[in-house]
Amino acid sequence: xxxxxxxxxxxxxxxxxxxxxxxxxxxxxxxxxxxxxxxxxxxxxxxxxxxxxxxxxxxxxxxxxxxxxxxxxxxxxxxxxxxxxxxxxxxxxxxxxxxxxxxxxxxxxxxxxxxxxxxxxxxxxxxxxxxxxxxxxxxxxxxxxxxxxxxxxxxxxxxxxxxxxxxxxxxxxxxxxxxxxxxxxxxxxxxxxxxxxxxxxxxxxxxxxxxxxxxxxxxxxxxxxxxxxxxxxxxxxxxxxxxxxxxxxxxxxxxxxxxxxxxxxxxxxxxxxxxxxxxxxxxxxxxxxxxxxxxxxxxxxxxxxxxxxxxxxxxxxxxxxxxxxxxxxxxxxxxxxxxxxxxxxxxxxxxxxxxxxxxxxxxxxxxxxxx
Length: 371
Description:
Blueprint: H1 4-17, E1 25-31, H2 35-47, E2 51-57, H3 59-67, H4 71-85, E3 90-95, H5 108-130, E4 132-137, H6 141-146, H7 151-162, H8 166-172, H9 174-181, E5 185-190, E6 193-198, E7 205-207, E8 212-213, E9 217-220, E10 228-232, E11 237-239, E12 242-244, E13 248-252, E14 255-260, H10 264-271, E15 280-286, H11 298-301, E16 307-312, E17 332-334, E18 342-346, E19 349-353, E20 356-357, H12 367-370
Parallel strand pairs: 1-2, 1-3, 3-4, 4-8
Antiparallel strand pairs: 5-6, 5-18, 6-10, 7-9, 9-15, 10-13, 11-12, 13-14, 15-16, 16-17, 18-19, 19-20
């Protein structure tokens, strides 16, 4: 018998996240094998009177494709996937796999080629601006290990997070959106971090279960050339098949002029992908009350309670600072006391102290009020 929490999640994805309507078309893309959720998504799509389409991919096979990829082949792959995506009204990307480092030995030039073709022409140019889309992970033993939980305990955590009352969160985010839209200067302080930048006239966007599951962030972008200072990230960050630790960036007039980590060579190769990779495309504040610790999965880690992420690369169209890049790398800093603490200031006013909002209008986003 299917776990009823799977049916609840599928219903939330089809009826809340993508709001499927009769005769609309949705592409369900599954990386890995998660039969029960895929079946439930198809059933819920039919119940909504919509039309499901399916793409099945496997991470280790994807690695084999990328290892030998040529520019011509990747451009044809991008055209193939773009032609399908153009026909869709919605997209659900279901990510699963037993090894987060499956792509770790794919050469950097091959990964960059994939980002600049398939990633840009399908995801950035079609899926994000023109469809209703949502991306999620699915629990497995590998994720349980990364979160240092038993498989059963992780599944309980997963469904608590993913079946949260996102409509309630959505309303609680409104005051933060209002404050961010009225703010010019932001300052962030913490261990190894003293960073200043402007967000003036760049829209703030709330994320409450419409684009990612799990969800729980409000994002904007810094004015491109306004970032100055240093940031030290206190979570490990997997990107392009490598997990980076102890990442520290130094900025001058918006540009990363120094980047160090557990792999200095590879991190600088990523940041040299193109001109925009050394500028920031997103600043976001995480508020999910059930996600407390990093597990090297960005869909979870970027929503951590009391966190923020500061993202090299491409800006989103709805919070655009003019930065373009094939890279979009969300890297997370947690500011709760057990992670070293830290503060966020808007125009000189303390907004969040050690991971907790201090203003009356924002306290609805503290964890006790969101659970």
